[in-house]
Amino acid sequence: MKLTTTAQVSVDGVMQGPGGPEEDERGRFERGGWAHFDDEAGAVMDEIYQRADAFLFGRRTYEIFAGSWGAWDDPGDSPIWTALNTKPKYVASTTLSDPQWAVTTVLSSDLAAAIGQLKAKPAGELQVHGSGALTRWLLDNDLVDEINLFTFPVVVGQGARLFPDSGLDVALELVSSRATSRGITIQTYRPLGRPEYATSTADPEDVMRDAPAPGSK
């Protein structure tokens, strides 16, 4: 299976509580509910879920999804509900012992090996939705094949970010990009390993010699 991650972020990189403040209140976060889907973005998200053969979650995101999608009655017309409630779900957790959501398996030890076995299966996609800490760990261990990023036209100004101020560095290849009529941008990236960084080779004396004299134009 191809391992793909999908995240909703603001322009300033916040991913906490996109659907509402009750989703994730860590740090007294009061600005949840900033991700407002339009029909175009919703259709793309439906398409992503329809490609899923299995899901992989971090514990916090799993509990959020289990308490919402896993508790709602079948609306009859939701590809997201159908995928989440019928496809296998895997949770990376050392503390969850009795998951209540059907078709759930807890991966509590040797996570890299377990995910490697899942990726080796001849199927479509093993999808990660949200799960920021897990996504960063997967990237750091070279286990991600593609990243889907929904960026919403809002600056939230606080909250947990997909990528913190310091952490891993990853070069990305843009696979596809589109923008909806309401300004939601949807990019798909492919990780390429570590980025290359430019190094300065200029002679400091040459830089000073070529610099304009003070007061000159």
Secondary structure: elements and pairs:
Blueprint: E1 2-10, H1 39-50, E2 52-58, H2 59-68, H3 79-86, E3 89-92, E4 104-107, H4 111-119, E5 125-129, H5 132-140, E6 146-152, E7 172-179, E8 185-191, H6 204-210
Parallel strand pairs: 1-5, 1-6, 2-3, 2-5, 3-4
Antiparallel strand pairs: 6-8, 7-8
Helix pairs in contact: 1-3
How would you describe the overall organization of this protein?
The chain is globular, with a radius of gyration of 21 Å. The relative contact order is 0.22. The protein is built from 6 helices and 8 strands; from the N terminus they run βαβααββαβαβββα. It is of the alpha/beta class and 217 residues long. The protein has a single domain (2-210), classed as Dihydrofolate Reductase, subunit A (3-Layer(aba) Sandwich). The protein has helices at 39-50, 59-68, 79-86, 111-119, 132-140, 204-210; strands at residues 2-10, 52-58, 89-92, 104-107, 125-129, 146-152, 172-179, 185-191. Helix 1 packs parallel to helix 3 (79-86). It starts with a strand and ends in a 7-residue tail after the last helix. An 8-stranded mixed β-sheet has the order 4-3-2-5-1-6-8-7, sandwiched between helices.
